[in-house]
Every structure is written in structure tokens, then in C-alpha cells.
Amino acid sequence: MTDLARYQDRLTIQRVLHTAKTIAIVGLSNTELRASYFVGYYLRRHGYRVIPVNPRESEILGQKCYASLLDVPEPVDVVNVFRAPDALPGVARDAVAIGAGALWCQFGVINEEGARIAEDGGVTVIMDRCLKVEHARYVGRMHWLGFNTQRITSVRAGLQ
Amino acid sequence: MTSDQIPRAEQARDFGFETRQLHAGQRPDPNTGARAVPIFQTTSYVFEDPESAAAYFNLQEYGNTYSRIMNPTVAVFEERVANLEGGAGGVAFASGIAAQAGALFTLLQPGDHVVSSSALYGGSVNQFKHWLRKMNVELTWVNPDDPDAWRQAVRANTKAFFGETIGNPGGNVLDIETVAAIAHAHELPLIVDNTFATPYLCRPIEWGADIVIHSATKFIGGHGTSIGGVVTEAGTFDWSNGRFPVVADPSPAYHGLQFHETFGTYGYLMKLRAETLRDLGAAMSPFNAFLFLQGLETLSLRMERHVENARAVAAFLESHPLASNVTYPGLPSSRYRPLVEKYLPGGAGAVFSFDCAGGREGGQDLIRGLTLWSHLANVGDAKSLVIHPASTTHRQLGDDELRAAGVGPGTVRLSVGTESVEDLIWDLQQGFALVAATAGRKVAAP
């Protein structure tokens, strides 16, 4: 079984959240009620540049949609994956090819080979974690709805 | 810190229970720096702009809309309980019974079936027996101590197992791991009322429970000031297994949203809040949440003392000639001892019953003779409490149901508080003196 804990390190997650600016979402749906759309919408609200990657769409969330990561004409900080686990090795190869900083695989998108390809190519891997949830945990307002953020801190932070 | 600086990273650390009961769910208020949890006594919240308002109502963004559905003070309480129980999140309600109704309402529809332990709090028995039936939900009571009874009660339309960590007032200790395994083998969630144990003494989710309910009115509050309840969910149950269309299918009550698919781990909790709490309307008040938080800060300290006193009172009763059938599972002689050692190593709580000599009259005489124990219908107060279930909390139950709930005519229920234990025992001696005197007069009368 894949050792997921090494892909869910809290410090790595916080570093990626706080340094990323451009996020390509592979498998982003154009249907408002799908989880990927919720995530894309949320990330845009919080100031990230979101680039949809989906060969079946031309535009999502008002942004030009690309068929493949290899077609994206600008640097990508995070590749966020909403695909079946067996698609991960291919996505990971593309993430390495475009020099992405991190490969972020959503809940259930678990594939050891894909993780290894990304790591060998110098790409940070986060797996079986939701980008929206982790953002809401550390930066956002997840605690407003009674969710267990598991955060314990007496540091006074800025307004959210 | 300005917004363009990277915040100090938070290290991964498994903080202890005593740290979390003080800190979980709360960070210093970003506006004011207030260290205590502010009481946000407001019905509603100003939206930044129309797009934000829409995003909050669409659940695309975590935002406050209306205090029937969420409130920042209540949210601290919800997260703190969820953290202490090891759940994905919590939703607070105006009472424990409302919390229970909410937890069930979210996963049931007419024609469904629930399997429940028969050794429940009388208020829960009423709720299940009458209210569930009104909703056209069938119910099977089982002896919680018999794994086969749970197994055999499952039907095609069964949707949940329900039990109490420590049964009220009979002191049955639920074999959570075994019952959870049976539930999961049938793709069902196990719901556990953990009110009597509190998360300090037992965390049912660690043993496989899926949903944990509390009457916060009891030990969580600890001061007998407020009525409230809270539901915590583990976030690991597969609500998309085909048995729970009310959780997994597109929701007609929320513009076709599929809660489990969209929110995954948080799907049930989102539905519990955004639909059930919205529609039942039994929201916890911010002030009550504040009082419950004051209670939680000292939960471990109070529970240690409650347990210490309960052990001493139970031992006193066990050796008293006018008391029998002392149900404290923490007694070395208890038949639940192996389960206590497994699930309740820190102690078996502080609520239990015993049978007073003289039956119904004996029980009532004992209460008449007490001057320190408070005669009232509650448990889990820092003050010691006493009641006669057959004439009060369990009054609506028939004889068979009384027996199934572990209640006899002379049964007296105690909630042992944190007073000086010698004073508690002194007062019980006063009560027994009256029982003995009354019995003596009867014997002497022609």
C-alpha cells in the first residue's frame, strides 16, 4: 500500500498553499455541481490564477481551457488532479515536462507510479488531500462551519 | 503580519487532550485579539458583495449567513467537540434530543428501519418509539450486550445501529468495536450516544463508530446552566454505498447538490447543517455555546474527580444492606469489567443506579431523606443529583420496557458530583436512615 503520510506533510501543504499563484486543474468539470468546479471556483475567489485542463471543454470559469498540460503557455505552480487514479502517471509525466512545482492529487487520486514519476522529476507530491479543504483549513474559514481543522495555535493572525 | 508575508508554518504535532480541550476550534480573534471566545450574539452577517452572498448560499465558500445555520461562537464549540472526539466536524443543536433527531433525520426517510439498544435514556426511548414511528420509520430494540441480536435485527431497509457508550441508567457498556464491525459488515453506520462517557473517558470513533451524539447539557457543560447537543461524524463512512440515497443522491432540497460526492469526507456534515439544521431550526444559541466552552476547558479535570467520587459512592452502596444491584460498571464486581477495561480505562463515568430496599416507596423515602444531593431530572452536573426513574424520566415506559432499560420499581439513579465525597456518603446515610425508619414503622404497625 502507498505510504500516504509522506504525501500529506502539513509543512509541505502550507508551503505549497502560501507560495503558489497559478494552479492548473486537470479534469476540471464545467458542471457547477461537481466537486472540481467547487474547487476551481473557490480557488479563483481566493486569488489564485486557475487554468482549466480538459479536452472536452473550451472555456470553464471564464478561463480558456487547454486539452493537455503540455498546451498551457505559461508557468504552472501546482497541477491539481481530478482524474481516475490510473491516469496519474501520464499527468505526472506532463507535470514534470512543464516544470510544475507541485502535483496535488485530490481525494482518492492515489497512484504510486504517478507519485514516483513526479518526485523523480523534482515535483513535490501531495496525495489524497483536497486543495480547497487544505486552503480553508490554513488560510480560509473552514472553522466557521464547525469542521475539525486540527489546528492548535495562539498566534493572532490577520483578517481573512 | 501583512497579507503579502508568508505566515509562520504550523508544525505537525499530536497535541494532548488537555491542550485541545482548551484550544481546539479557537484562534485569537483576528479583529480584536480577544483571548476568550467572543460571544457573537447576532442573527445574521453582512455580505461583502452579491457574489460572496451567492457563494455562501451555494456552499462554494465557507461563509456565515444566518445563525440558525451557523454562528462563530457555536462553531468554536462544534470544532472543539469534533476535535476531542476525533471526528471530521460537528454540528451543534439546541438540545441533545434535537441533535439526535438531526443525526437521524439526515440519513432516514419513510419506510426505513433502525436497530437500537433497548438500554437507552428514557427521552431517547420516547423519541424513537413515537416520533420515529410517526415518520414511518420502523424500529427494533435489541439487547445491546448480545452481538447476535444486532446481527439478526438487520433488514433490507435498515439504515443505522444506535447505542449508548454507557447505558442510562442501567450501566450497560456497549461493545463498540464488535457492534461497529457488525454494522459495517451490513454497510450501516453505528451511531453512539457518548454523553455519559464524554470524549475524555471514551472516543467511540476510535473504535469504529461513525456518528457520535452528545447531550452537552451534561458533563460537557458541567454546570447545569444550559441545554444543548452536538453531533460529530467520523467522515469515513461510505454514504455512496447504495443504501443512502437521501445522503448521496442529488438533493431536491439543495438545488440538486450531491452532498457526499461533492464534499466527500464532509458530505454528511454539510447536509446535516445546510439542510437538516436549516429545516429543523433547533439551533444552539451563541451564549449557550460560550457556556459549554467554559465547561469543556475543565472537562478532563472534572471527569477525573467525578470518577473518583463515583467509585467511592458505588463501593459504599455495594456494601450497604439497604442497597442492591449497584450498576456502576466501574465496580470490580461488574459484569462489564472487561469492556470497561477496554473502552473506559480512565473510569466508567459517574452516573449509575441501584435498587433501594422497599421498592417504589423505599426509593422515594431515600430521596426524601437527602439534603445535599439534588432531586432533579438531569445528570452530569458538578453537583450531585438523584432521581427515581420509575416515577419520573422513565414514567412513560411500561413494565417490560422498564426492565429492558434496566429500571426496577425501587431503582434510584445517581449522578455523582465533584463535592467532598465524605459529604455525599454522609447524606446517603441520612437517606437510608429514613428508609430504615419508615420500614421499621410499617413492620411495627398492626
Task: Please provide a brief summary of the model.
With 160 residues, chain A is α/β, with parallel strands linked by helices.
Description:
The complex is a heterodimer of chains A (160) and B (446). Chain A is built from five helices and seven strands. By secondary structure, chain A is an alpha/beta fold. In chain A, helix 3 runs parallel beside helix 4. In chain B, 40% of the residues lie in helices and 12% in strands. Chain B has 17 helices and twelve strands. Chain B has helices at residues 17-23, 50-57, 72-85, 96-107, 122-134, 147-153, 176-185, 198-201, 245-248, 259-263, 267-280, 286-296, 299-318, 337-343, 359-369, 399-404, 421-444, and strands spanning 89-93, 113-117, 138-142, 158-164, 190-193, 211-215, 229-233, 323-324, 351-356, 374-375, 385-387, 411-415. In chain B, strands 1-7-6-5-4-2-3 form a seven-stranded mixed β-sheet, sandwiched between helices. Chain B has a five-stranded mixed β-sheet with strand order 8-9-12-11-10. Chain B is globular and about 80 Å long. The termini of chain B are far apart. The model of chain B has no long low-confidence stretch (mean pLDDT 93). Chains A and B meet through helix 1, helix 2 and helix 5 of A and helix 1, helix 3, strand 1, helix 10 and helix 11 of B.
Q: What is the N-to-C succession of helices and strands of chain B?
A: HHHEHEHEHEHEHEEHHHHHEHEHEEHEH
Secondary structure category of chain A: alpha/beta
Low-confidence stretches of chain A: none
Widest beta sheet: strand line-up of chain A: 2-1-5-6-7
- Level of helix content of chain A? 25-40%
Search tags:
heterodimer; A: 160 residues; alpha/beta; Rossmann fold; 5-stranded parallel beta sheet; two-stranded antiparallel sheet; 5 helices; B: 446 residues; Aspartate Aminotransferase, domain 2; Aspartate Aminotransferase, domain 1; 2 domains; 7-stranded mixed beta sheet; 5-stranded mixed beta sheet; 40% helix
SSE topology sketch:
The complex is a heterodimer of chains A (160) and B (446).
Chain A: H1 10-19, E1 22-26, H2 35-45, E2 49-53, E3 59-60, E4 63-64, E5 78-81, H3 88-97, E6 102-105, H4 112-120, E7 124-127, H5 131-138
Helix pairs in contact in A: 3-4
Chain B: H1 17-23, H2 50-57, H3 72-85, E1 89-93, H4 96-107, E2 113-117, H5 122-134, E3 138-142, H6 147-153, E4 158-164, H7 176-185, E5 190-193, H8 198-201, E6 211-215, E7 229-233, H9 245-248, H10 259-263, H11 267-280, H12 286-296, H13 299-318, E8 323-324, H14 337-343, E9 351-356, H15 359-369, E10 374-375, E11 385-387, H16 399-404, E12 411-415, H17 421-444
Parallel strand pairs in B: 2-3, 2-4, 4-5, 5-6, 10-11
Antiparallel strand pairs in B: 1-7, 6-7, 8-9, 9-12, 11-12
Helix pairs in contact in B: 1-3, 3-12, 4-11, 15-17
